[in-house]
Every structure is written in structure tokens, then in C-alpha cells.
Amino acid sequence: MSGRSSARLREKELRAAEIKPKATTHGAPHSRTSRKKQKTAAETSAPNAKPQVSWARVKGRRGHLKMVVEMPLDIILEILQYLYPVDLLNMSRSNKAMRALLLDRSLTFRVWESAFSSFSPAPPPCPDDLNFPQYANLLFGDTCFECDAKKRLTTSMKCYVRYCESCIETEFISLTHVDQETVKLLRRVTLSDYVKRYDQQSKRRWQTNLFLRRDYEIKLQEVELDLSDTSKRAEYEKRAQERLTKRASFGYHARQWEWALSNAKRRNAADIQSTRQDMIVGKLRGLGYGDVLDRLRYSYRAIATLPGITGKKPLTDKEWDRIRPLLVDTLIELRKTYENDQRKLLLDKRTLTVSGVFDYYISHNRHTERTAPLNQQLARLEPFRTLVYDTPSEKELTATEVMEHLDDIPGALKAWKEDADSLLLALLPSVSPRGRNKGKAASRGKGKEPDLSVLERATSLFSCQWCTEVLVYPAVLSHPCLFQKHARSAAKKSQPAGEEDDIPVDGPGAPWNEGGDQVQFDEEASTTATVIIAALGHDPNVVTWEELDKANQRIECLRCRSKKGAAPRLVMGWRSAILHDFAKHSGDEDNVSRAWEAVDADSLAKAYKKEDVSRSWKQVNQVKKLGPYCVECAKITFAGGNFRAPYNTSRPPNCPVDLTLPQYANLLYGRTCFTCDSIHGLTVSWMCYTRYCREAECIKQQFLEILETEDQSSLEWYMRQILPCDRTRRRNPSYSLLEYKSQVKVYVSMNGDQEKLDQYREQRNEHCNIRKLALGAFQKWESMKTGARKKSVQDRRRDRREAIMKKLVEIGYEDMITGLSADYLGSLPGVTGVKPLTDEEWSKLGPQLSDVLSWDRRHYAASQRWDLITSRSDELAGIWAYHLSQNPDLWPFSPTREQLAKLEPFRAIIYGTPADQTVDESLFMPFLDQVGEVFKGWMNDAEVVLLKLLPSAIRGRASQEKEKLHDVSVLRKATALFTCEQCNEILMYPHVLTHACLTERDERGYQWKDFGTGDNNLDDDPNVSWNEGGDRVTFSKVASDYLVNILRVLGEDPDTITWEELDEANKRVECLRCRKIKGKAPRLVMNWREAILHESHRHPEDNSKKRASGWKALDPDSLLVAYEKEDDSSGNASKRPVRGVLHCRSCQKWRIEDGEILPPTVSERIQHARLKPEDVVCEGGHDLTSAEATYLHYYAHDPYEAEKGFSYLPYPVWIPA
């Protein structure tokens, strides 16, 4: 057998043989032996055949695919059959040889056809005016047909083109504003589509209908021919319209396919990402990081933030080896972060518990509050530090355990204070026996070490590193800045670089003066204070800041006075003087000793008066008005392991000078209106010292509105200046009517003396300002009183509820107390009371609660059983849906999912499995093949029930042997009519099997009001059997008798005809009784179903003789008229010509993958899409040409037609006589 080689190699060998090598002395030339190869497609067995085929004759380099064309043709074609159209398209663009091969219709037609048929979702069939390569380029191409651009492309499936934004402007034209007769014709015959356009200047995008220029020019040439003949013109336009219709249909289906393909790609990418994420998570769990991953799942998309987990490609071993170190490092850092966070939360919780104990101690020892730190600092002092930081994390630190160390608090505070005092004393400069500063700090000098009394001197001032406040002792011990963690703490400053991660987790806050450098002695403030104290006449080396505050002197800044002239004078207290010197005269060094001067007694009185009315003193005055706290009222109590703060720790503001104590007490604590003694809707006016209700008459008797005027000589203007204004619950300013009358008398007594009026107005203004300043104190006290009253009620209700819960636990209802919500417990009778629970009250309340909880216990158990059966029945949904999707013809007459759950073998699994065991879909999968037999058994049982309901006349008096044969054909008789006892609807077989009322629970069987009082059992089964109870459906003898008369009128045999045969005959009858009532015309005609309903609704009392003569069959001419009337009737406009609609079987098929039942891949809208008989492709892209591709869904079970029931055919119509 001769060797085989490609045509290209054989040609090269022939050319090489023609060039003879020159003879040499070294011997004969070396003969090259060719390797033996198979015969390729380029060779033929005939001696005179062409050495090459067209697709193999190429020139130049052919790239990496150059050896593909050297393969035998049958192998190439076999390989190509497994490719998709997009792969064939890309290969055709790889080189000229592959292009020539794939464009050869005689060789690769079946290859392209197989590629399109195997692609999923299946694209629409290839149009007749396109070949497969063109069709593949249209569907899968990614370049512009004109300029090969790859960005901003728009595909017009209707026009078979794809253009970029720039080419759209040239390849499409608009014929909107052209009105020529020829162009009007061209609009009707030229291809057009809605395409996206883009304006470069305005950056605006919009969609408009444009015409394809190429098709327009072709049609223009055709129209320019002689089409003057009307018939030719109409025929031409008809052909063009048919072409446009086909293109439009193809465009629609192509767009639907694009949408399905887009969804498939998106689902595929999501599945790949999900699978990749699950694989990575599984590998990380295998490495021992499951606890970190569980914490990440609590955050939204937190796992997706891990490096490499959201890739778009499947995970390989090589890629896992690449991303594993980074993932492990990330999870280690996260684990450390989570552990630190957990530790910090634990320390915060324990510190809060210790802080509560500290607050309890301070409330009972107020004398220590002055020198005590913040409450969080106690958690850093022994023995409390050991409790907080060294107690195992799994053990809860309770307030009771901390309270056992209550006696250790004084020693811990004393030790802490001694350390803080030592640090502050070390900051003070050394003091000589004469009291003069020498050197710098005591630690660096040789002076005498001062005692603790030095810290209380007014000149012992300190400054904070974090704020500008000047601190005195002991306020420096509780300064908030010194207990906070700042951006760069001393602990981190001392930490070596690279070891910051090893810093242990600390509790809230920070130790006082952490690092020892956050508080310093303020030499500048001390120097300024020395000068000011000396100016006030005190010894700076002896006087304390408390003595200065008690003296309450004022000092004048002479430097500000010299700048502003002889008047006014700026006076202030000694504290404000220090701050003033820093703010205004920090750079002044000359005559510092003469910068300050103490004010005399007269000037001091004026200063006090100015300060009382000054807004800058508002906060100070409010604090003074509040008065001191009561130590006993402010004590915190500890009971039952909980701390309880006092209800109201503040006393009311001091009594105003213009009210007596009884009047003030009535204003504070009274509960009636000052006018009508009403106790409802009360409001206190703190500005006018009165209380009023909502009644308009009371408001009128206590308040008046003074008109605003600019006339300063008028009484109204003067009264608005001297009377306190109230704005509570009133839009306009109001004034006290009582005060108004008294001030009017004063105004009249002055007889218009302007000097006296001005002096009196100034006095009243000061009085009004004092009331304004006290208003905030009154409102704050009122708010605190209301809050304390509410808290008192809440605490008493909580104590009562806890006492009742304790009693209920003692009598055996602990499971109900712990398993139910707080809202439910609050709804129990007697639980929400305010009074303490007594034994006498419990003797009456206990039996009531016992009855309620006993009923609720049974109801709760039944509810748990209900939820359990429901959740298990839901697991059967996949089995039920899968079987119906594989057998869609059973859908209209199949049991519901709930009914299937009550049929064996599923009933044993759902109802018989213990409650503590899990029931999922995997337990039902072994019985998947038995679902069909279960359906058939259910239908047989229902048919037996229906057969027993039929009378012997309809069954034909069958013998016992025939009844054993289970003759179902009897049920299809037209006279076999049934009635639902709940809705009274007339039913036929097999629609009666799926009637809604027969598959729902009958609420008439419940007796909720009697439950709990006897042995009545609550139905805990959510699933309902068909015709549960056996009495929901009965044979409709009345309707059957009506139909017998109608059938005889129609000439049909009532004993044999079925309802399908009646519907197919589509006959009509006329009601003669209605015609007699209305005269000779018109005539009321209807079908046999409506005739039954008409008889029962309009003529129910007629005897059998009248019913027999009350109907007449229509003749053929009248029947045609009735059909036309029914078509034109508005009431019958929604009626459809056939019963049911078509659906695609493939779109609704569920599938089994890896032992799990999965829903269809298409959307729910496509699953239930209605098809037309002429459709060949559904929206999901499935072929509908096969008879088994679709199934008929009856109206009786269609959501659109469900309410039409028995009467689904046209309504009665009136026709002329």
C-alpha cells in the first residue's frame, strides 16, 4: 500500500525532486525517505484527480492550526460536530483554510446544523434568507458589520445587522418627516427597527425607529419601476408585508432567545462562583478555620471579601495552592481580631458590673466622692482587677460576686489616692520656708518636700495635655481626659516597633494619667493666680481655692479699663480672671502687679446684680436654683442581684420670692385646674405660676393676649414689657390675667410720670429675667419627676411580674414561662398590675392563670405539631412538582401536595417520624417511582365515593358484578352532576376532584371557644384530604332533573350522552317561559349549562309539566344568529373559542441532579406562558413542532379562568323572533 501525505507536502517533494543536486566526490546524494501517512482529504484515488481541494489551497503562514487541515477529513468533521456555533465561527476566522472548509456547504452543512441543535438554550430556527455561518455571525458575532468595531454595538435581529454607534448614523435613515407618496409606500415595505442612538455633544442616548439604508435603496429601485398597475402594486406590497411579518416574528423570538441566553450565562457564572466559594470554604474548614467562617456569615457578603473567593473560573489545585497562604494569613488575622473583640466585650461587661458596685458605694459614702476617680477606674484596682481580668471567660461575673468585695473598696481607693497625690506632689515646685519658689520640680531640687495641704492651695494649679482647662485639687483626680484612651497612649509609645500586635486587650477607658505625662503643673496659671490673690488681699502661700470661692470676691482688670477709658469697668471672679489673663494679656509682662484691683463693696453689689441678669450666668444660676441633693434619696439599692437607682434625686427649685410656700407647693404638686378643679389635660405655666386644663373657658379666665404695637406711650406696649410671657400650648404669646390687672393699677397710680415708669419697667424686666432663668430648672425638675414616676411604675410592675412568674414555676408551669415571649407573659390576667402581690390576691389569681396556661400549653403543643407537619409536607413539594412536570396531563385532575402528604407511603414518614428527627427530601426520593400509583389510587378512591353518590337510575341499575368492575364511564354522563355543600356550585367529573372547597379545611368543624374547658382536641393537622368528612359533596338531583328535560328537548338520550359530547355539539335552547313574559320578541337562548343555572335561578318553583314544556331547541338559522350575538356580546368578549391553553412541557420540567430535585431553569413567567397553536418555538427556546412538546391546561384549573367554574361557555343572549 502506497504512503499517504498531504497535498502540500507532496507538492513540495515534487518541486524538490525537479532540482537535481550536483554530483560530489563524497558519493551519491542522500535520498530522503518520506514517512508513511494516511491518505488525506486533499488526495483522491483517481490518477487524474486534482491534487488539492479549494479549502486547502492557501498561501502564507497558517499559525498553530496549520496541522489541522493535514488531518483526514472524516476526523475533522467528527471533531467539528462537537463544537458550538460560536466555536465554529471563531475557527472560521482563524485562517483561510479553516474558513474555506467551514464555508463549504457541501461538507459542513450537517456540522453547522448539529452545532445549532445542540446549543442550549436553542436559538430560533435559521431564517431561509440566511445560511448557517451568517446566522452564527448574527447571533454570536462581536464586531460591527461595517467597521469591525467591538464597542457600543447594537444588533437588529429584525434587519440581520450589527452596527456600532457611528455606523448606525450612516447605515440607518429616518423617514419621519418625508411625506411623498413614494416614501409613504417605502415606509410600509422597508425594514425598520428601534435602535439606540447617541449624541456626542449632549451625551444623550435615546431609542428611535429607523429604516435600514441598504434595504431602503433596494426598495426604492424596485418602486421606481412601473408599478402603476394597482393589482401589481397591491401584490408587491402584500409580499413585502409578509416579509416584514416574518422578520418581525424572527426578531421577537431572537430577542427572547437573547434574554434566555443572558440568564443562562448569569446563572452559570453564579453557579461557578457559588461552587468555587463552597469548595474554598470546605477546604478552609478542613484546615480548622470553621469558627472564623461562621463569624463571617453573620455579616452581609463578608465571605465574598476574602481574597480569591469570588473568581469567575472553577477552582483548580494549582490555583488553590496559590491563594491558600493569603487566605490562611487573612483568617489568622481575623481570628485574632475576633478574639480581641470578644475579650473587649467581656471586659466592658465586667467593668460595667464593677462600676455599678462603685456607684452603690459612692451613693452610701458621699464624703468620698470628692476625691474618688471615675467609676470605671475601680476595675483596675485590686482585688477587682483580678475579678475582671483573670476570671475565666466562660464564667459570668455577677454583681453579687463583686458585692462580696464591697469592704475592699475603701482600701483600694485610699491606695489609688495616695499614688495620685504622690505624683501631683512631685509635679509641684519646691517651696522655701518663706514660701518662695526655688528651682523647678521637687524631684530635681533640694527644697523641702511639701505636704498634702499644699495641693489645696489656690496657686496649686494643673493643666491637662488634651484640653485647655485649668485644674485644681481634687478636681484633677476626676478629670475625664485623664481616664480616656487617646490616639497615642504611653503604652504604645513604649512598645517596640513590630510588637504592637502583642499588646493585651484592655478594658474601657484607661488608668488615671496613663504614662505619667498627661497632667503637668501649670506655672503660668500659678503665677497669674499669685498676682490675683495678692490683689484680693489674701496670702497666696496659705489661702485655698475653697476659701476664695467662699469669699466670692470680684476683681477688676485695670488693663482693659485703661484701653476703654474711665468706664465701663470689667470685673470678674478669681477663676475667670486667670482665664482672662491667658486670653487677653498673655503677652503682657510690664506692670503685672498693677494689672488687677479688688472692687469695693458698692461696686461688688452692682456686679452681683449684673451677674444675676447676665445670660453668661444662666447655667450657674440654674445650678444654684436646683439646690443641694438629699443623700438618703440619692442612695442606690441592691436587691435580687440588681442595682436600682433612686427615682428622683433632685429637689425642686427654690421657692420664688413672689410666692408663698403653700402657693408654691400647690403649683408643684397640685393635680387640679386653678379655675375649674378639673384633673384631666392639665398644663403648668411656670412663667405665670398657674395650672390650666384644655377648656377654653378656663384659658380665657387665666390668660389674655395683648396686641403688639409700636406706640411706646400706649398701655399695651408697656404691659408687654413688664409682664412675663407664656407660650405653652398656645401659638400666640399669652399673659397672666391676674398679673395684668394688678400691674394696670400700678400703671394708673403713676399718672404718666415717665421717670417712674422707666424705673419700674427696669425692675420688672429684672424680675422677668429671673423667671426666664428659673424656667429651665422648673422644666428639668418636671421632666425628672415624670421620668421617676414612670420608672417607679415600671419597677413595681416588674416586681409583681417576677413574683407571679416565681409562683407559676412553683406550680409546674416553668416550660410555659421560659418558652413564651415577654409580650405573651404581659398579656396574662393580673400580671400587669402595679400593687405588690399578696397571698390573698394569689389565691384568687392562681386558678385563673392555671386555666389559661393549661389551655395555652395544649394550644402551643398543637401549634408545634402543626408547624412540624407543615415543614415536613413542604419537603414533599419537589416530589409532587417533579411528577406533574413529567406528566403534565395529570395536572388538572391530580391531588394537591397536602393531599399527597396524607397518602401512603408518605404519610408514614411525615406523621410517623419522631419529632426530634429531621425529615427532608432525601427520605421521599426512594418512593419517587411510586408517585404515579399513589395518584391512581387516590383517584380510584375518589371515584368510588362519587359512584356511591349516584342514584341507580344514572348507574343503569348495574349488577353487583358490574359495580365491582368500577365503571368510571358513568361519572362522565351529562346527568352525573354534583353539588358542593359549601359554595353550592354545580360540579362535573373530573372537575369535582380538584374543586377548591373540597381541598380546603372546613372551618365549621372548629370550636375554639370550647377549647380548654373540656376534653376537646385541637386539630393539629394542616393537611386536608379530599372531601374530608365525606359530606362536602353530594349528588345534585335537582340539577340532574333539569338537565334531563333539556336533553330531551335537544333530542339527546339522557342515559348515554356525556358532557363532552354536549359541549362538542354546541347546541342552544330557548326559554319559552321568558318569551311569553316579554311577548313575541326577543327570544332568550343559551347553552345547556346556562339553561340549568337559568332554571334554578329564574324558575325554581315551576312543576315538572311546566319545565318539560318550557324549553325549545333552536333551528339552524336561529343557531347561527345566536352564535353571532354571542360573539358581539360584551359579556362574552373574554370567552375563548377552545377549552384550555397550551403550555410547553420542557419549560415546566423539573430535573434531578446529584440526587436532588431542582426547579426549571427558566423563569416563572416563561414556565406559565400561554402559547398559540401556530407557535413553533416557546419563549424558552424549545421546539414545539412535536405533538408531545405541549400539553393542554384546562380553564377549570387555570388562574385566569378559575372563577368561571361550571359556566365557562358564553352567557345567554337575546335574539330577534
From TrEMBL:
Domain of life, per the record? Eukaryota
**Domain F-box positions:** 65-115
**Chain spans, region Disordered:** 1-55, 492-517
One Pfam match, given by its short name, reads F-box
PROSITE patterns to which the protein is assigned, alphabetical: FBOX
Instruction: Specify residue ranges for compositional bias: Basic and acidic residues.
Output: 8-21
Q: What is the designated name of this protein? A: F-box domain-containing protein
